[in-house]
Amino acid sequence: MEETRLRLAAAALNQTPMDWEGNLQHIRTAIAEAKQNNTHILLLPELCITGYGCEDLFLSPWVAEEAFGKLLEVKEWCDGITVAVGLPIFLNKQVYNTACVIKNREIVGFTAKQFLANDGVHYEPRWFTPWPANEVQEFEMQGQKYKIGDIIYEEQGVKYAFEICEDAWRPNRPAERHMPKGVQLILNPSASHFALSKTDVRHRLVVDASKKYRCAYVYANLLGNESGKMIYDGEVLIAQNGKLIRRNDLLCFKDVDLEIAEVCFSDKPAITEVIEYLPPIDENKELIAALSLALFDYMRKSRSRGFVLSLSGGADSSLCAVAVAEMVRRGVESIGLEAFVEKALLFSGEDKARFRQLPQEEARKAIVGKLLTCAYQGTINSSDDTYTSAKELADSIGATFYNWTIDEEVQGYTSKVEQALGRPLTWQQDDVTLQNIQARVRAPAIWMLANIKYALLMATSNRSEASVGYATMDGDTAGSISPIAGIDKSFIRQFLVWAQLELGYIGLQYVNNLQPSAELRPQEQVQTDEKDLMPYEVLNMIERLAFYDRCSPEQVYDILLERQVGAPEQLKAWITKFYSLWSRNQWKRERYAPAFHLDDYNVDPRSWLRFPILSGGFKEELQRVQGK
Ligand SMILES: Nc1ncnc2c1ncn2[C@@H]1O[C@H](COP(=O)(O)OP(=O)(O)OC[C@H]2O[C@@H]([n+]3cccc(C(=O)O)c3)[C@H](O)[C@@H]2O)[C@@H](O)[C@H]1O
Ligand SMILES: Nc1ncnc2c1ncn2[C@@H]1O[C@H](COP(=O)(O)OP(=O)(O)OP(=O)(O)O)[C@@H](O)[C@H]1O
Ligand SMILES: NC(=O)CC[C@H](N)C(=O)O
């Protein structure tokens, strides 16, 4: 039996759109590490020269030209190795999303993506043209001729070809056609966004393909918060004939994360009978890993000097605070304290010397103290419970904490308007107005802190609130990032219990005993979110059915009735409230600060879900629900 052994490597890279210098540096580091390890073939992620998230810049011909120039630089680093590197190619007024194969400093060819990602957060057909199956063409660039298309390559007699990210997610994927042609190795450069539990799907896609197509399958994803909203987990997978050979730790804080495996190719491969799949995914662990890396990358890539947070002691702001503490804990664990503080780009030599002298936990707290500034901004409607919760949490993680009240400012605005109108504002007549002024008055001072510190102001809205507009525009929505706007409230509440018990955030014990409340009405009215809206579990069910499963209002009603979520009249009321508030508040969703995509869907019109700002508001559909 003929046997060939190849050392195959794949590297996850933390790239940034149009950061030519940084992106090339990471590519160069990966190539150097692969060469040191005598690698035959190194796979790098999709579009890693430009970055995947260049958006409409991909339509500018000069961007592809610039990328081609960078490719020629990369080529020179590839002596004695084959490297697959991604970039856009502009040909006949079309842009192609390609993987270029460089072998020993020669460009062998460009494989162009055949299936463009166009669902959820992906909008590739806006920029790229899909390449037709089986077609190979020649093109000329800077006086040289190159091959582009559906190419089969060869390394020491082993035939290999590509599936570029989405290519692998379609039924008639390229591997179907490649296997009969004797291809034994598939390379998949990807930019596959993070979503809870998605790694399981990806793992199946790769390992199942390696069995079905009797091949070795190498997969390299991007890593980190690349361009603001989408997070990449940096997954690297190497599998063969149904068996996983390598899988790295996901969501690390490195710039380059490389895995290598020696793979044996033979005429008669031994195919795994029963594939071993991943154990169930712990979504709490995944969430905090993704959120903390997303915050770190956002902070350093935006050159901001930490975070400012209006900390109410409620669930949403507490999660934001814990996320920053975890950013420091996980970051230090992933790359070490020295590298972490260096990479954060904001600490002085004096700071660094101080951190070095402290025991690890103290050092982490001292870093949090510099990176996170919180303020409790109470009113007469605030409770001692929320103050204690905010203060204890801030102290336990080492955050800088301020406390002041805003009643004077609320009173100032209220009396001005009362004078102008010539009447007092009352809770009977002006309920929402009197609530909103409190939320709004919290914005200017907290913005001041953010300005003073050159820090990012965290807006704390979650996805459930965003769906129904349960937030005050320019009040608690004020901020420069909305880190948790992609996560629903029920998930947040169970996460905080888990974080207290499993991650040891004892400061969360107070919030975990509180009912979510805006604390905007007088205390005797005992305001809770769920009294104002509906149970969060129900709200989430309606939201998912309506916008993820794409059911009509009537279908939502029928399903909830069958699931015995509530009595018919109660369900009708909840559904009517949800759709009415949903429609009325699209404008608010358009105005949220940039939010991370974390769950398998979100309600952000600039990433996952588009909806008209002005609409009929489901009037007829809701009448039909009422008539049931
Ligand atoms: N289609 C449209 N396009 C553009 N603007 C539109 C609009 N429809 C209304 N508007 C504007 O929107 C304004 C109303 O919006 P806004 O002022 O934000 O307030 P609004 O949505 O009326 O009320 C805020 C709600 O959020 C709740 N809340 C507030 C703050 C914190 C929390 C908490 O959970 O802690 C909860 C509060 O209890 C209340 O139910 C209108 O005065 C109008 O100017
Ligand atoms: N007393 C307060 N001090 C500081 N910030 C506050 C205060 N009350 C509200 N906020 C700000 O307004 C945001 C919105 O309040 P909201 O009630 O939706 O969230 P939460 O208080 O964090 O959580 P929960 O809804 O579980 O009480 C808070 O996250 C916080 O940023
Ligand atoms: N870049 C891509 O083609 C991504 C699409 C693919 N379906 C994924 O989410 O992983």
Automatic annotation (TrEMBL):
Superkingdom: Bacteria
NCBIfam families tied to this protein: nadE (TIGR00552)
Catalyzed chemical reaction(s): deamido-NAD(+) + L-glutamine + ATP + H2O = L-glutamate + AMP + diphosphate + NAD(+) + H(+)
Any one biological process term the GO annotation gives: NAD+ biosynthetic process
Domain CN hydrolase stretches: 6-265
Binding site for ATP: 460
GO terms, molecular function: ATP binding; glutaminase activity; NAD+ synthase (glutamine-hydrolyzing) activity; NAD+ synthase activity
Active site annotation, chain numbering: 46, 113, 165
Family in the record: Belongs to the NAD synthetase family. In the C-terminal section; belongs to the NAD synthetase family.
EC top class, as a word: ligase
Protein role: Catalyzes the ATP-dependent amidation of deamido-NAD to form NAD. Uses L-glutamine as a nitrogen source.
The enzyme's E.C. designation: 6.3.5.1
One Pfam family this sequence matches: NAD_synthase
Sites where the protein binds L-glutamine: 192, 198
Alphabetical keyword list: ATP-binding, Ligase, NAD, Nucleotide-binding
Source organism (scientific name): Pontibacter flavimaris
Protein's UniProt keywords contain Lyase: no
GO cellular component, one term: cytoplasm
Binding-site residues for deamido-NAD(+), renumbered to this chain: 436, 465, 588
Record's protein name: Glutamine-dependent NAD(+) synthetase
Keyword DNA-binding: no
Pathway it works in: Cofactor biosynthesis; NAD(+) biosynthesis; NAD(+) from deamido-NAD(+) (L-Gln route): step 1/1
